Amino acid sequence: MPDDLRQAVDDALTANASLKDVQAILADGGVKLSLQSISEYYKLHLLPRIWAAEDHNAAQLAKIKRGNVTKATHAAVLQTCYEVITRPGKKSAADLQRLYGMVLAGQKAQMEAQRLKLDIDKWQMMAAQALLDKATSPDVQAIVGGHESNESKLAKLRDLLFGPKKTITPEFVDVPAS
Prior knowledge:
By secondary structure, the protein is mainly α. It has a domain at 1-56. The protein is 72% helix and 0% strand. The chain has 7 helices and no strands. Helix 1 (3-14) runs antiparallel to helix 2, helix 4 packs antiparallel against helix 5 (93-135) and helix 6 (138-144) runs antiparallel to helix 7.
């Protein structure tokens, strides 16, 4: 069988084409084979390669730490899960459970990141609202409407809006000589 025809058959079988579709591809290439022969070819030649690829994927996924799932890793795990589940052949419960655990860990990490972003947005809104409340208070309006110099107004507004200045004195600690 020519290499290009063999590759077309392999691609069709890997893509879960029916045996009749593969038989039609072979017929277009001038090769007549029974459905039984095509099935035997799949079982003896393609299935072991698919299993080897699944074993390789499982070994790679086993190296990934469960709590350290990035967005790219999560996408790769989802793709691998899909491939493992949709391909015929052996599937161990432990591998599927590990894959599912990684999917859940990735989703949890994404949800935590989203929650943190929402919390930061909420805190920023609360700080802005508190500053706006102070800025529209009668005390601030009295300072702004006063007849003092701008420097004097700014000094009073700073104290009123942001609190009095705090001087911070650094404290040095003696480090033992090593």
